[in-house]
UniProtKB/TrEMBL annotation, chain A:
Subcellular location: Membrane
Transmembrane segments: 12-33, 53-75, 96-120, 140-165, 177-200
A cellular component annotation (GO) from this entry: proton-transporting V-type ATPase, V0 domain
Record-stated family: Belongs to the V-ATPase proteolipid subunit family.
Pfam family, one: ATP-synt_C
Complexes and interactors: V-ATPase is a heteromultimeric enzyme made up of two complexes: the ATP-hydrolytic V1 complex and the proton translocation V0 complex. The V1 complex consists of three catalytic AB heterodimers that form a heterohexamer, three peripheral stalks each consisting of EG heterodimers, one central rotor including subunits D and F, and the regulatory subunits C and H. The proton translocation complex V0 consists of the proton transport subunit a, a ring of proteolipid subunits c9c'', rotary subunit d, subunits e and f, and the accessory subunits.
Membrane topology: Multi-pass membrane protein
Domain of life: Eukaryota
Protein name: V-type proton ATPase 16 kDa proteolipid subunit c
Automatic annotation (TrEMBL), chain B:
Compartment(s) of residence: Membrane
MF-aspect GO terms: ATPase activator activity
InterPro entries cross-referenced by the UniProt entry: Ac45_acc_su, VAS1/VOA1_TM
Positions of the V-type proton ATPase subunit S1/VOA1 transmembrane domain: 381-419
Protein's recorded name: V-type proton ATPase subunit S1/VOA1 transmembrane domain-containing protein
GO biological process: regulation of cellular pH
Pfam families, per database record: Ac45-VOA1_TM
Taxonomy, superkingdom: Eukaryota
Length: 209, 431
């Protein structure tokens, strides 16, 4: 049969990543062996990168990772519902609720992104080394951390709800009367609001004036 | 006659790059005045430790400073007969013998900065009395390097010491310091280097330009003359004068060096004209201070006595606008012009601006002995911050792209029923 197109693509992607990371590691080794190891200065990088960058990255990651989680969940559960619905159409309406729960994960992510974007505001011309800059940098880190936390949690939550929905659909094909409550799958989402509120409670962007 | 004698033999400092080893002997008369700290087991005593620990143990109102051009431990121990006079003095008084102290050539400058009144011994002998409370009598011993035999040189020095002490020792209670400007012995580093064969280009004498200063762990090169603008209270330039490079006296360069902490170089310019407030030719001293901050160094300030109408000696501290940190083992030559502004005011209420036009400096170079600058700092890293930010963002986008492409390529279609010539499938909709 020969090699299929998909496996070629996968190997290209593998090697692409390897080469990218190899170039970065080679640069790092080059610095270290020429005695300039301390020029790889993570502290300089973290201090001088603009807080806007961290905050925007956090906000973007919240919504995008949540949507990825929801999409993968719907992918998993939708395939099994439609596939099972071919031979047993009765399961279609009952299992719509799994899809809705997956979608709710994306909505949560969107709401939290809107809240975080409300905290981010323009702070004028403040340079690194200033006292206000440190407050803004801390706020940027808070938003980034909240974004990463909520985003990845929603990602895995969406995956979980998807897999549970798939199993529910598949088992309902064989057992007519099986009623499963899958609501627990998305319980992780409920806690996210509180976690997010705690994380960004001290985030406050002070302006120059 | 009560004399204190502290003899410290200064040796080459621990970076072993300059021949600055001077013995330093401080001795005191019968009664031990105060608590003399124990001399550590290390060979070298640092110059700052000499000032902080040992000198204050002796009463320091009146000091006789015997300054030789070159001295080392071997000179004091190898010639017992010639040094007999010195031995007598040491035995009949309290003394401290430091075998290795760095940078004793800046002793005189620091005594002056501390407020001592420095008198040449010849003036004393001709009848001038010691007036003030703090006196240093400077006795420049005859040159020993010109005499081929150290024996004779040490004998001569001893005779001079004896004669000076007999003539003026009775005037006051003196603390005597016997030291020298540099070591008479070469360092081990130089000795090993001399065994190497060097190419002809290295053997040719290197002609240093006038603005190049190599002293106390720092190298400074001022390509053009330093200009100083005197600003009025409103900020407008009132007058300007230059400090020309050819007026700098290289042998008068002094400075301190604390390895890994700070370094200061003082450059002396003699017979500078047109200084505000000075009637005649003026002596300008500029001190460049470098400090170490978190494995990077920077020029902290430049201090100079630029206004002769002010009575204090070191007047102006010039600061840069922002401190640029240069990584270790790299020199700085990024700006063509650097303007340093003084924080204190002139007598007319304005400030002064020092303009360095064309320069390169470095603190703690790796090739200090050769006086060679290290590579010049680019003043910008390999990747700037925006480049890093965009690299990381592109990395995130690439992850997303690759993941999406991976998932697309992972979709398995049902090829089983895609045969156009096969029979169509029939899915019964039974319930």
């Amino acid at each position: 049969m020969g090699y299929s197109n998909s496996s070629y693509t996968q190997s290209y992607l593998y090697y692409g990543f390897y080469i990218y990371s190899l170039v970065l590691i080679a640069i790092a080794i080059g610095y270290t062996i020429t005695g300039q190891g301390e020029r790889i200065d993570i502290g300089w990088f973290l201090e001088n990168v603009s807080p806007y960058y961290w905050a925007a990255l956090g906000i973007g990651l919240v919504v995008s990772l949540s949507v990825v989680g929801a999409a993968m969940g719907i992918h998993t559960t939708g395939v099994s519902i439609i596939g099972g619905g071919v031979r047993a159409p009765r399961i279609k309406t009952k299992n719509l609720i799994s899809v809705i729960f997956c979608e709710a994960v994306a909505i949560y992510g969107l709401i939290i992104a809107i809240i975080l974007a409300g905290i981010l505001e323009e702070y004028g011309d403040i340079q690194p080394g200033d006292e206000k800059y440190e407050q803004n940098l801390m706020s940027g880190y808070f938003l980034f951390g909240a974004g990463i936390t909520v985003g990845f949690t929603n990602l895995f939550c969406g995956l979980a709800v998807g897999i549970v929905g798939h199993i529910r659909a598949a088992s309902q094909i064989t057992d007519h009367l099986l009623i499963l409550k899958i609501f627990f799958g998305s319980s992780a989402n409920f806690f996210l609001f509180f976690i997010m509120v705690v994380q960004v409670s001290k985030a406050d962007f002070v302006s120059a004036s | 006659m009560e004399i204190s004698l502290l003899v410290c033999v200064t040796d080459v400092t621990y970076y072993c790059c300059q021949n600055f080893s001077t013995p330093n002997l401080v001795y005191r008369s019968r009664r031990a005045p105060g608590k003399i700290p124990a001399i550590s087991a290390l060979q070298s005593t640092s110059y700052s430790s000499l000032w902080k620990d040992y000198l204050p143990a002796f009463p320091s109102e009146n000091i006789i400073l015997f300054m030789q051009d070159a001295l080392s431990i071997e000179d004091l121990t190898s010639f017992p007969h010639e040094n007999a006079e010195l031995k007598n003095l040491v035995s009949e008084s309290h003394s401290v013998y430091l075998p290795s102290v760095g940078e004793t050539s800046s002793l005189l400058r620091d005594f002056k900065n501390e407020g001592y009144n420095i008198t040449e011994v010849s003036k004393l002998q001709s009848g001038i009395n010691l007036k003030s409370d703090k006196n240093v009598v400077l006795v420049n011993l005859p040159d020993t390097l010109t005499i081929p035999q150290r024996k004779l040189a040490m004998q001569k020095s001893n005779e001079v010491i004896e004669s000076v002490l007999s003539k003026i020792g009775g005037l006051r209670k003196f603390t005597c310091i016997y030291t020298a400007r540099k070591s008479s012995k070469e360092t081990s580093e130089v000795g090993s280097n001399s065994k190497r064969r060097v190419t002809r280009s290295l053997q040719q004498a290197v002609d240093r330009p006038a603005g190049f200063h190599n002293h106390s762990c720092a190298l400074i090169w001022l390509r053009n003359d330093v200009t100083v603008n005197v600003l009025g209270p409103s900020g407008v330039i009132d007058s300007t004068f230059t400090i020309p490079n050819n007026k700098s006296v290289a042998s008068a360069d002094t400075g301190h060096c604390e390895d890994g902490v700070s370094s200061s170089v003082q450059i002396t310019y003699r017979n500078v004209e047109n200084i505000p407030g000075a009637t005649g030719p003026y002596e300008v001293r500029l001190e460049f201070k470098f400090i170490f901050v978190r494995s990077k160094w920077t020029l902290s300030y430049v201090e100079g006595n630029l206004d002769a109408s002010m009575s204090r000696d070191l007047v102006f501290q010039m600061h840069k606008r922002k401190n640029e940190l240069v990584p270790n083992k790299m020199s700085y030559s990024c700006s063509v012009k650097r303007i340093l502004t003084s924080s204190n005011k002139t007598s007319s209420g304005g400030t002064m601006q020092m303009v360095l036009n064309g320069f390169q400096y470095e603190a703690f170079p790796s090739q200090l002995s050769k006086g060679k600058f290290d590579g010049s700092w680019d003043c910008v890293g390999f990747f700037t911050i925006p480049v890093w930010m965009s690299l990381i963002t592109i990395f995130i986008f690439l992850i997303i792209l690759f993941w999406g492409l991976w998932m697309l390529s992972d979709v398995k279609t049902m090829d089983r029923f895609d045969d156009p010539k096969g029979k169509t499938i029939n899915v019964p909709n039974t319930e």
